[in-house]
Amino acid sequence: MSHSSFEAGSAIGPKAKQTSFTASGTIPQNMTKLKTLAPRIGVMRSRISPAPQDERDRSRNRDATQPWRAWYKTARWQKLRHRILLRDNYTCQVTGVLCIGKHPTENSPVVDHKTPHRGDERLFWDENNLQVVSKAYHDSTKQAEERRSMETRGIWT
């Protein structure tokens, strides 16, 4: 045996097949190559939807997954919203801030559902369940409260 080759199987026992490798690590021509095995596990589809690229994508995605959001685009909602703004004198019912700004300023008015409707049409259209709040309050405190309640009461329908 020369110094430039290695005998595989010599340490295993006398019945083991002897395979020679050259010093460069190449396999001799008379040896067959292993065939690759077919994968046993398929590719799993992601269960997480892709993150929206901007606010428009986010809104489009929410419109597609929450059909009740279409109610906000109706003439009926616009009339009801205007009635609530007049009833509450454009004043935030929680903080007392005068809501006279134009969207997206912090003092722009938001007509908010006191009890989240979560797709319940009766709660959505109930005037007694509506109040004027400032955008600043709605987008911080109110949204945080709703997220906490979703964790304890489940997802929106």
- In terms of structural class, how would the helical and strand content be classed? alpha+beta
Cα-to-Cα separation, first versus last residue: 77 Å
Strand order of the largest sheet: 1-2
Morphology: elongated
**Low-pLDDT ranges:** 4-11
Give the SSE string. Answer: EEHHEHEH
Mean pLDDT: 77
- Regarding quaternary structure, how should these chains be classified? single chain
Binned, the helix content reads 25-40%
Query: Number of DSSP strands?
Result: 4
**Strand content range:** 5-15%
Alpha carbon gyration radius: 34 Å
Number of helices: 4
Structural features, described:
The chain has 157 residues and is α+β, with helices and mostly antiparallel strands. The protein has a domain of 89 residues. It is built from 4 helices and 4 strands, in the order ββααβαβα. The strands form 2 sheets. It has a two-stranded antiparallel ribbon. The radius of gyration is 34 Å and the shape is elongated. About 5% of the residues have low confidence.
